[in-house]
Every structure is written in structure tokens, then in C-alpha cells.
Amino acid sequence: MSNRANLTVDPQLADFVENEALPGTGISEDDFWAGFSNIIDDLSPRNRAFLDKRDQLQTKLDEWHRAHGASVDVDAYASYLKEIGYLVDPPADFEISTANVDEELRAVAGPQLVVPASNARYALNAANARWGSLYDALYGTDAISEDGGATRAGEYNPARGAKVIGRARALLDLAAPLRDGSHASATGYKIVNGALIVTTGDGETPLKQPEKFVGFHGEADAPSAVLLRNNGLHLEILIDRESAIGKTDQAGVADLIIEAAVSTIIDCED
Q1: Is the pTM of this model over 0.70?
Q2: What is the CA radius of gyration of the chain?
Q3: DSSP line for 50-115
Q4: Is 57:86 a contact under the CB 8 Å cutoff?
Q5: By the 8 A CB rule, do 235 and 172 touch?
Q6: Do residues 250 and 187 touch, judged by C-beta distance below 8 A?
Q7: pLDDT tens figures, 97-152
Q8: Which candidate, 50, 233, 240, places its Cα nearest to that of 131?
Q9: Are 2 and 9 in contact (CB under 8 A)?
């Protein structure tokens, strides 16, 4: 173990913080560990008090159920819960504000996914839970009708695939519209001078709101992925002209990956 500002720190964590997380942030190692130590000193007693309170409430709840069995008088039980402080009256309306909070927690609303960090597979699943294939979701559910031969049973159905692609293009037109034309007629995507340029049947056009383009993978003139952002959430256009789906698409788009409003919290306790 390593000692840092009165803390006992796992060497792997210390190495990650000092050699990977901090470089480039402008925060020195001493300042980071001193600040972290102060946070631990400040919050540990409060956390312990919360845990003690939870244990006290659980003991009282256990006592109630041992005394009254499975049959519960709802009114009497509610009265008891208020008496022990488990239930409280709703507070008056109020407003709060936030400062120095990560945007993902401050501005992106959604349920929380809590997993034990001791299990790598669970942690990976939690991190990936934000993202999902829109193509898979549309193709495999009744979000797309089976009219006109667009059935989802059996092998891949090109008629259904065309409907999926059309719906995905419509979403792109809503989330990141082009200055001219539509994503439905896109035949290629490239990055020029830091901006996304989309080739359509009518020529080349940027986004109507260029700031919605936030990054890409691959070569600028032939990216393998284009990342867009709308209302704080991301959409990733995957481009692979050699894939089964990309071969059928005029722009080589193989999938549209969308980010869901889910906050992932990793619980370090077993």
C-alpha cells in the first residue's frame, strides 16, 4: 500500500491517478490527494451516521413485523413508520441549484444503474447500458410495422431493413438536420476543417447546427464513425461499407447507436 496525504492507497489506484488521470488537468498530485483526504475526513463521519441510522430503522422495522406478523393494519403501520422517522410529511415546494457537478449527473436525467465494481463484467455492462443499436431495436420490435412484407421472422428481410434505415434517417433529420437536404439522401460523410460535411444527391452540405458534430473515428475523408450530440445525448453513426448492412446502404451506414438517459453509478462496496 502507498501513503498519500494521510490515506492508505492501493498502488494501482495511485499509479492511475498520478500517471493517467491527472496529467493535463493542471492539478498537482499533492493538491489532489490533499483535497481527496479532506473529502474523506468530512464525509466519512456523515456516511457512518447515515448507516447507523439505517441500522436503527431496520431494527425497529424488524421488531414491528415480529410483533405483528404478516397481517398489517395499514393505518397503524403508517403511523408507526412516521413515529420512528421512516416516513415524514412532504416538504414545502423548494428550488435547488448545482455547482461543480459533472454534466452527466447535473443535466442528464435518468434512472441509475448500480453495480459492484468487484465484478468486471457487471461494471462493463453498466457502462455499456447507456448505448444501444437503434437498428436492432427497430428491426426486432413492433416499433416498425410488418405491413408490405416487412416481416421480422426468419432470415434478414431487406424490406424490413429498408424501413428501419428510413426511420433512423428520420431521427437524424430531427436530431441533427442538414443545412440543405436530408440524411435520407446522404451518400457519404466526411470531416473538412473540423466540420461534418454530408454528401447528398444535391451536393455537399454541413449540419444546420454545426456544433452538434462532436467527433469521429477513422480517416477524416472516410470516417468509420461519426458522433453527434443532441439535447445532451449522443448518436453515433457507424459506417462500414463491407458489413452486411453497410453494403446495402448508399452511405455505407451499418448502424445508428444511440445514448439513453441512464446514469451509471459504480458501487465500490460488495
Answers
A1: no
A2: 26
A3: HHHHHHHHHHHHHHHHHHH-S---HHHHHHHHHHTTSS-PPPPP------S--HHHHT----EEEE
A4: yes
A5: yes
A6: yes
A7: 878 877 766 666 565 667 777 777 877 777 777 788 999 989 998 889 999 999 98
A8: 233
A9: yes
